[in-house]
Amino acid sequence: MRFKILDKYFFIETLPPYGIGLVAFTFLLFMGRIYHLMKLVVYEGTPLVFVLKFLTYLIPSFLIFTIPIGLLLAILVSLGRLSSDSEIIALKSSGVSIFQILRPYAFLAFVSFLLVNLIVLKGLPWGTQKIKGLIIQMIQETSYFQVTERAFTQVGKHLLFYVESYDPETQKLKNIFIQDSRDPKREITIVAPEGQVLKDIQSRLMVIRLINGNIHQMFSLKESYQKLHFSTYDFRVDLAKKLKGRGIMRVKNKDLSVSALREKIRKMKKAGKDTSDEEIQLQKKFAIPFTCLIFALIGVPLGIQPKRSKRSAGLLVCLLVVFAYYGLTILFDVMGNNKTLSPFWAVWLPNILVTLIGIYLLMISYKERTPKLFEYLEAQWINFKFWLQEKRK
Hints:
- Mean pLDDT is 79; it is low at 245-249.
- The radius of gyration is 29 Å and the shape is elongated.
- Helix 1 (2-44) runs parallel beside helix 4 (98-141), helix 6 (258-270) packs antiparallel against helix 7 (276-287) and helix 8 runs antiparallel to helix 9.
- The protein folds into 2 domains: 2-139 and 252-392, no CATH class; 152-244, no CATH class.
- The longest helix has 44 residues, at 98-141.
- It has helices at residues 2-44, 48-84, 87-93, 98-141, 239-244, 258-270, 276-287, 290-303, 311-337, 343-366, 372-392; strands at residues 152-155, 159-167, 172-180, 186-200, 205-219, 224-238.
- The protein starts with a helix and ends with a helix.
- It has a 6-stranded antiparallel β-sheet with strand order 1-2-3-4-5-6.
- It is built from 11 helices and 6 strands.
- By secondary structure, the chain is α+β, with helices and mostly antiparallel strands.
């Protein structure tokens, strides 16, 4: 019964910083996407409700990273507070071992592991499918033709529009000028007295139907000019490609389900294509959730510091471990894509290496010894404080 109360005490200390860290890290990742999404609202007139839905569907792709990092932060903050108040020393003096301290954190890590596993296997494919559906809905409900009357409007890098009058309700245009430089070999200028904006839902295109106009083509290689007259001409803009080009809604291998990835690998192998990235992403579906368990294994020995002076050193080591872990993940990803390592080892080696480090730190803490790295960092921290004091004098 004593240790059940102790477990509850650790939970009370850990859950608040866990929630705060989870929200804070998720918000930081959101900031990288909000800028691009706000450009859709400001420059293209996308309703704000679509942006909010996109952010909702992006949450699973963020949580698979923020849940393990938030857990590690919570363990360090809670144990750091207990260590600085000498509560850890009191617990050890009363016979509580590090493995008993690890028990509530292991349980919390296991729950986080199950949650991340559910997100990876179900949440990411769900978010991807919802984003696809939202793209279609955006095309159905918005024309994406937001122009200012009697002014030149840039659409992307290679399209320039001028419209004398535009009726948003009927989508009718008057006196249209279009300059299209998407093809580097030729530049097209289209002039028409009238037109209308249409939508091709099946192919996800915006179509501007122009009536009784002229097409002026300038070929750069031959330095020739051509003029064509038309009674009806459909000018098409690929909206799905345009949206994906912004890097917001691009469907990547990591967003596919396990079955979809396996099917893609099967088809690519049948076609003789390289499947390194696909196989790496498939292995990651099973490896990513273990980050929660690994970070808990490392966080507990790092958080238990018997001296206050070592608290900062432990936090610094933790930050280095987090950066090292994801740095190793990127490094081995490259090695896997270059076929230096097999997809299995490219994904699982970072987990294995960091797990060994965690076991080493746990055994060192169990023997009441201080890792040499901690001693070195503490010495460097003390030297830095002395150097800073000398500079201030």
